[in-house]
Design goal:
about 140 residues
Length: about 140
């Protein structure tokens, strides 16, 4: 059985290029997400972007300490989060253009929860007003 190849740790220059590429991609995602906010603001994209930014910051700190293996690990995590955010943003763009507007939020957005609660409260008010009116009619008859 062959031994797996040991990958070499990238040099400082290679890591700087990788980190710059990640930062560039995050900037593009920010611009496109802002443009997409006209039809949907994705919490999933925002969380992935924040995670990517945190991992990128860690990678830069490890790079400054010349701990290249840890810098590479954090850069890999940042790339993963950036790629995930890009894929979700692309999927939601496609979904919007298909006209379904069924987005990939894992948790309901604050706006959707607020609208749902407002709708439920309106229904409750209508129900309570109906009960109150029926009590008034019963009271008048009795």
């Amino acid at each position: 059985m062959k031994q797996p190849k040991k990958s070499r740790t990238p040099s400082r220059t290679e890591l700087v290029r990788i980190l710059a590429l990640i930062e560039e991609n995050l900037d593009e995602i920010d611009k496109e997400h802002e443009a997409a906010s006209a039809y949907h603001r994705s919490e999933l994209v925002e969380v992935s972007r924040d995670n990517a930014q945190a991992a990128l910051k860690e990678a830069v700190q490890f790079l400054a300490l010349e701990d290249f293996p840890k810098a590479e690990r954090e850069a890999t995590a940042a790339w993963f989060y950036t790629d995930f955010a890009r894929n979700i943003l692309d999927a939601e763009f496609t979904e919007h253009h298909l006209g379904e507007d069924i987005f990939l939020d894992l948790v309901p957005t604050r706006e959707s929860v607020t609208l749902e609660i407002a709708s439920l409260m309106k229904d409750l008010k209508t129900e309570l007003n109906g009960i109150y009116e029926s009590l008034e009619v019963t009271k008048e008859q009795g």
